[in-house]
Amino acid sequence: MTTTKHPQLPDMLTIIKGWAKVKGTSLRKLALKTGKSQTYYNKILKNGDPKASLLLTLTDILHVNLFEYYLDLLPEHKRITQREKMMKEKITELENELKRVGEERDRYWEVVSKK
Prior knowledge:
Layout: H1 12-22, H2 27-34, H3 38-47, H4 52-62, H5 68-71, H6 76-79, H7 82-114
């Protein structure tokens, strides 16, 4: 089975080489850290569709979220993760609670100032 490079997928080989350079390392050194060969990395990353486990490993080593390049391909409404949804709901809940507490405080000070 041959895999063709999807034209929309990010060029992960170039991206990872770029991040490696920024981080003061190289693809060869990354390969050594993970017990793979540079040839393996060149082949897998050139394909344009690397395994998630490889991206997780490289994300951990480089301290860069390499999955963002794939998320950016999604429509805006699909980019949000479940964790983000939960956090937004929690923020809304806390903002409402803060508003309620502020209103209670204001009522309290109204009563206190009338005495």
